[in-house]
Design goal:
With about 350 residues, the protein is of the alpha/beta class. It has 11 helices and 7 strands. It has helices at about 1-5, 15-65, 70-85, 95-115, 120-125, 125-145, 150-175, 180-185, 200-205, 270-285, 310-325, and strands spanning about 215-220, 230-240, 245, 255, 290-300, 305-310, 330-335.
């Protein structure tokens, strides 16, 4: 270029070249800055769009998660919580806050559902729980990674994401957590009405030394298959003459087994008989060839016997239908703890030594 200008008789001085290069550098820098800013705006807009879509789905899923905790629905919500974390630093601050608040809300909803009801334990398979623990663990690792790089993610991590993901991992890895058993049978529709010392049991469960443990046992009852029900005892009592019900502390009190009531309810109080009859009729209308499914809470007396804590009326009604040829399925949440009347007064009839 310099030779060309010299040939035309218009050579540039060093100052001319310096000015040209300086102007070019400044122009390039300004253009680069404008392009970078424009690119940043585009990235921000795209991040906002992606997070808005995820917030919309997660908000919709919250109502579904409250009604049912199907594994596939739970997985999808957890994956959406995880997927948007990498986009948070690219979005505008208001969108970052909205997304992270929604993540916390979804996690709290899942925790409340799985932490207060045993329905999922009765319905989910072992594979479902294994996948759940993997998904939650990966979400937790991703959130920790981004919390180290983003102050806003770190704030929401400390405010709740850390605690809720830890609790979800406990729920997903323990066979049947005592805290879920407690919540299900004290706060939900199913209530244990016997005078169980929940505080003593909770303290023993917290020691985690195996004194208190829970297991889920599924039993399929074939038509007329009452033998499988022989070991279930009700917290109801009769005297030796079978003239009627008595209190547990009556000097002649004898525990009643559910199989004793299959053909004769006359030993029971009138209101119990009426309730059992109504449940039997209700179950009879629900038969669809697959039988009736029933959730029970029991207290282990020994390897072969259990005291039914919740579901006594339902089990008696179901036993009557099984005796008539109806198949059924029992999902039993069995509590194993010391057989002591200090924990449950009814256990005085089963204490040994």
């Amino acid at each position: 270029m310099d030779l060309f200008l010299w040939w035309r008789g218009e050579p540039w001085s060093w100052s001319d070249w310096a000015s040209s290069f300086g102007l070019g550098a400044v122009t390039t820098m300004i253009v680069g800055m404008l392009l970078a800013r424009r690119q940043g705006n585009i990235q921000e807009a795209l991040a906002d769009l992606e997070l808005t879509e995820k917030v919309a789905y997660m908000t919709f899923s919250v109502s579904q998660l409250r009604e049912a905790s199907a594994p596939e629905l739970t997985y999808r919500a957890l994956y959406d919580c995880r997927a948007g974390l990498s986009l948070v630093p690219l979005a505008r601050r208001p969108m970052q806050e909205e997304y992270l608040r929604t993540v916390s809300r979804v996690l709290e909803t899942i925790t409340d559902g799985l932490g207060s009801s045993l329905r999922s334990h009765a319905q989910w398979t072992h594979g479902d729980w294994s996948n759940f623990a993997t998904v939650v663990g990966t979400l937790r690792e991703t959130a920790m990674f981004h919390a180290r790089r983003s102050k806003i993610v770190a704030a929401h991590w400390a405010d709740g994401i850390d605690t809720t993901t830890q609790r979800l991992l406990r729920i997903g890895t323990a066979p049947v957590p005592f805290e879920v058993f407690h919540a299900h049978f004290t706060e939900g529709a199913d209530r244990i009405r016997t005078t169980l010392d929940w505080q003593a049991l909770s303290e023993m469960a917290r020691r985690d030394n195996g004194t208190v443990r829970l297991s889920m046992i599924s039993t399929d009852l074939a038509p007329y298959g009452l033998a499988a029900l022989e070991g279930y005892h009700a917290p109801w009592y009769r005297d030796a003459s079978r003239s009627g019900e008595v209190e547990y502390d009556h000097r002649a009190a004898m525990p009643i087994r559910h199989t004793e009531l299959v053909t004769d309810l006359s030993v029971l109080q009138g209101d119990r008989r009426s309730r059992i009859g109504a449940l039997r009729d209700q179950y009879a209308t629900q038969l669809d060839g697959r039988g009736v499914s029933l959730i029970l809470a029991t207290y282990a007396l020994d390897p072969d016997r259990s005291l039914v804590l919740d579901g006594n009326h339902r089990l008696t009604a179901l036993a009557q239908l099984v005796a008539r040829g109806c198949p059924a399925r029992l999902i039993e949440f069995r509590l194993t703890a010391p057989v002591s009347s200090a924990i449950l007064p009814d256990l005085i009839h089963y204490e040994t030594g």
